[in-house]
Every structure is written in C-alpha cells, then in structure tokens.
Amino acid sequence: MNMITPSRHALTAMLADIHQAVIGGAAEQCSARVAEAIAGHLASPDLLDPGACQCCPDGYIRHLLHADPEHHYAVVALVWRPGQMSPVHAHRTWCALGVHRGLLTEGFYATTSGNPTPVQTAAFLRTQGDTSHGPANPDLIHRLSNLSTGKAISIHAYGADFDRFGSDVNRVYDCE
User: Fold this and answer.
1) Which domain holds residue 106?
2) Which of 3-12, 50-59, 73-82, 145-154 has the lowest mean pLDDT?
3) Smallest Cα–Cα separation from 134: which of 25, 15, 34, 24?
4) Do β-strands 95-101 and 170-172 pair in parallel, antiparallel, or remain unpaired?
5) pLDDT in tens, 89-135
6) pLDDT tens digits along 24-61
7) Residue 85 falls inside a structural domain
8) SS3 string of 72-112?
9) According to the model, what pLDDT value does residue 16 have?
10) How far apart are CA 128 and CA 121, in angstroms?
11) H/E segment holding residue 18
12) Is beta strand 2-3 parallel, antiparallel or unpaired with respect to 61-67?
C-alpha cells in the first residue's frame, strides 16, 4: 500500500469536503454525505498525481490519500487493471466510493437461509463521476470489477482507521 501526499489543491479540497461530510450530521446518513462529497471532485483532472497511482499486476492496489488523525475514517485511491476485481464482500463499516477514471462494474449479491454462499442478483456499470455508498451491513454484499480494457481509478472512504482496514472493513465471502 502506497501513501500519496495531498499536495494538490483538488485533492486537498476533496479531503476537506469528505471530512465535513463525516462530522456533519447523523451517523446513519454518513455514507451518503461522503459519496456526495467525493462526487463533486471526481471529474477534476488534477485530483491525483498520475505518477502516484501505479497499477499492480497481481491485483488492484490501494494508495492511501488520507488517514484521519482521530482514527474515524480513511480515504484511499484504488487502481484497477483490466480484469482485476475485489473479493465478494460486505462492509463492517460505512463505505462510499466514486469512479475517478475508467469504468467499473459493481455486482450485488444476496444469500438465502438455505444457501449462505452469495449469489449475484444485479450489476451496474459505474462510469467516471458515478458514486455508490452504504452503511455497515452484512446483507449489503457486493464486488467491484474492472471488466473494461483500460485502467480504472476509484476513490473510497471507509469509517475505520486505516491501520485496521484488514480486520474492520470487509467481511469477505468465499464464492469460488
């Protein structure tokens, strides 16, 4: 995981808007407010330094944009090569994301009492400027995939301290 220093005005402005969204109201609407804050900056061509968001051939990669000093949230840029995808997962915390570059497909999944393995129920194409969000909910199961032929970059904010991403953000399902 790489750290990106917020030296650009556009990134600094987005991070300030995200911070205001996190602290600015009822907790149950936090993910929607953060998605709206992210949306206002996704079209900015200088949001991220192009050289700072490198791809990884083995899977998508997270680049840390900001870790809240009070440990309430963290913001990352995810860089996706064609064919890369997240595991099928639900979030243990609120999450908001927006597509900065490229195309992503967000698949949604559900389980049944007779079958705890999630089955895909819907898919939506997320293009530049699109956002998605949700509260912490084990029933909101999804997967992001880059099914296009070009690189994609998405911005994600999670209601967890960056150092606890591994244990506090995703509940991963085995769908293979």
Assistant:
1) 2-160
2) 3-12
3) 34
4) unpaired
5) 998 899 999 999 999 999 999 998 888 899 999 999 999 999 999 99
6) 888 889 999 999 999 999 999 999 987 768 888 889 98
7) yes
8) CCEEEEEEECCCCECCCEEECCCEEEEEEECCEEEEEEEEE
9) 96
10) 23
11) helix 9-23
12) parallel
Weakest mean pLDDT among 56-60, 77-81, 160-164 = 160-164
Rounded to 10°, the helix 30-39/9-23 angle is 160
Into how many domains does the chain fold?
Answer: 1
CB neighbours of residue 108 within 10 Å? 16
167 in any annotated domain = no
Q: What is the CATH number of the domain that holds 132?
A: 2.60.120.10
Question: Could you tell me if residue 124 is inside a domain?
Answer: yes
Q: Count of CB atoms within 10 A of residue 49's CB?
A: 14
Computed over every residue of the chain, the mean pLDDT equals 90
Q: What is the DSSP string of 23-71?
A: HSS-GGGHHHHHHHHHHTTTT-TTSS-TTTS---TTS-EEEEEEE-TTS
Residue 28 lies in a domain: yes
Containing 10, the helix (H) or strand (E) segment is helix 9-23
C-beta neighbour count of 21 within 10 angstroms? 22
8 A C-beta contact, residue 30 and residue 159: yes
Place of tokens 């009492």: 113
Residue with tokens 């530049």: 128
- Global confidence as pTM: 0.90
